[in-house]
Design brief:
InterPro entries: Phytyl_CoA_dOase-like
Number of strands: 17
Strand order of the largest sheet: 1-2-14-9-16-6-5-4-3
Cofactor: Fe cation
Mean pLDDT: 89
Order of helices and strands: EHEHEHHEEHHHEEEEEEEEEEEE
Helix content: 10-25%
Distance between the termini: 32 Å
GO molecular function: dioxygenase activity; metal ion binding
Number of helices: 7
Pfam family, one: PhyH
Largest sheet: 9 strands, mixed
Radius of gyration: 18 Å
Protein name: Phytanoyl-CoA dioxygenase domain-containing protein 1
Structural class: alpha+beta
Low-confidence stretches: 1-9
């Protein structure tokens, strides 16, 4: 792992761009100001306070393969969330009738997948001049925003995210065209579930893919291939301070542990795709729509 400071410019040095190519992830400390972090946290609090999720749409979020297929892939609430703002919850927060067992604001795992398009605060952050400058410094010519998420990592029971590659869910031809921008709105520590990476694991292709099943053919999604049993000793922890930006290559293997601490680990993250010369797989669960084509990052 390596750490560099953005010095407020948002631009990594040339040597760190090379390290990103070698390692598949990069930390830019101090990318966001305290005020920017607090503005997003305040806005998400307002969104949560106003949420109204029908009983049949209370979907628990998981990264375990079987649970993913049962809880997400088979529900239209998840599959049609690519151009909307929708709510996904931790496991065990509902009773058998779908009623909350904990306060609603403490039950949410994430909000996705189009905050960048429908909320002015998150749209402003996503398309900010320093994000655009960073994308240009990385050589992106025609980046588009494909999805965004606000991740809560709730205290005491915020769920683990099992080892995975983002390109398993956001597949392109050729590979290497998807980039995650993960922004820490609170300190991410070993105790509250910071990210872990396998450096250099982005160079061996994609081990499995989550694909959308053809209409009328049964469950909403299925997996092609399988996730290897990754050696836990290969993972490197990546604790960062509030305001840090973590660049995540679409094929680098990463995870996070369950949050058993007293502190949440809130983050805003979105994914870019280099659209020039790239085909977005029509089998991906997430598809652009007539209402929301993937918006261009550059204004």
């Amino acid at each position: 792992m390596w750490l560099i400071r953005s010095r407020g410019s948002g631009k990594p040095e040339a040597w760190s761009c090379l390290k990103f190519q070698e390692e598949g992830f990069l930390v830019l400390e101090g990318f966001l100001s305290v005020d920017e972090c607090e503005a997003m946290k305040q806005r998400i609090g307002e969104i949560v306070a106003e949420m109204d999720v029908p009983l049949h749409c209370r979907t628990e979020f998981s990264t375990q393969e079987e649970e993913q297929l049962q809880a997400q892939g088979s529900t239209d609430y998840f599959l049609s969330s690519g151009d909307k703002i929708r709510f996904f919850f931790e496991k065990g927060v509902f009773d058998k009738k779908g009623n909350f067992l904990v306060p609603p604001e403490k039950s949410i795992n994430k909000i996705g997948h189009a905050l960048h398009a429908h909320d002015p605060v998150f749209r402003s952050v996503t398309h900010s001049p320093k994000v655009q400058a960073l994308a240009r410094s990385l050589g992106l010519q025609m980046p588009v925003v494909v999805q965004s998420m606000y991740i809560f990592k709730q205290p005491h029971f915020g769920g683990e995210v099992s080892p995975h590659q983002d390109a398993s869910f956001l597949y392109t031809e050729p590979l290497g065209r998807v980039l995650g921008m993960w922004m820490a709105l609170e300190d991410a520590t070993l105790g509250n579930g910071c990210l872990w990476f396998i450096p250099g694991s982005h160079t061996s292709g994609v081990s499995r893919r989550m694909i959308r099943a053809p209409a009328g053919s049964g469950p909403g999604t299925c997996f092609l291939g399988s996730e290897p049993d990754w050696d836990s000793s290969l993972f490197v922890p990546t604790p960062v301070q509030r305001g840090a930006l973590v660049l995540i290559h679409g094929e680098v293997v990463h995870k996070s542990e369950q949050n058993l601490s007293d502190h949440s680990r809130q983050a805003y993250t979105f994914h870019l795709m280099e659209a020039a010369g790239t085909v977005w797989s029509p089998e991906n669960w997430l598809q652009p729509t007539a209402e929301l084509p993937f918006p261009a990052l550059y204004s």
